[in-house]
Design brief:
The chain has 199 residues and is an alpha+beta fold. It has helices at 2-41, 49-56, 117-130, 137-144, and strands spanning 62-71, 74-82, 95-101, 110-113, 149-158, 161-170, 173-180, 186-187. It has an 8-stranded antiparallel beta sheet, sandwiched between helices. A hairpin with a 2-residue loop joins strand 5 (149-158) and strand 6 (161-170).
Length: 199
Amino acid sequence: MRTRRRFSGEFLILAIAFGLAMLKSSVARSDDADRAELIKELPAAKLSLRQGIAQVAQGTEVPIEAKYEMVHGKLMLSIYTSAKGFDTAAEDNSFNEYIGDVTTQTWTPEKEVFADLKHIARSAQYHALLSMTDVSIPTIIQKASAQGTVVAVREKIRSGKPVFEVMVVQDNAIRPTLYELTTGEPIEENSLKPNGRKR
């Protein structure tokens, strides 16, 4: 009886592990397909990320993320903003997304004021990181454009170090490039130690 139970338990563990591996593989294939479709549709964009930012970031409103993405087969331009700017703390701020079809002659994005916890938390993190620097997203886009077409910019913590993560189309693939958050200088990801200091 114990042998049978142990066998059943081991079989269940193996089945779960196999299922998770298949799910991970399926997600990876889906991501690859989405990226390939994005690269294919990108030439149809009528607006650059910087132009989209200039259109929506008015007054105190500042960009905290910019990206192209495929939504239901359409190439969309999405800009996240901090409504009151970096002089207002995240908890007293509000965060918006402007998103719309970027293949039309005029980009007329829909505006959403985030109310769900997931988007508010992510936006608050972007806001907090950008509050630490004078380097703006448009400046980083301009720098990274020398490497290829920029399709996304966001702020992250990599190995304990705050960085701009810029996704750039190079050699028909989308590759990440990192820039120091406080200086805007490019860095190599493999040059960082787990504690965030350079090797």
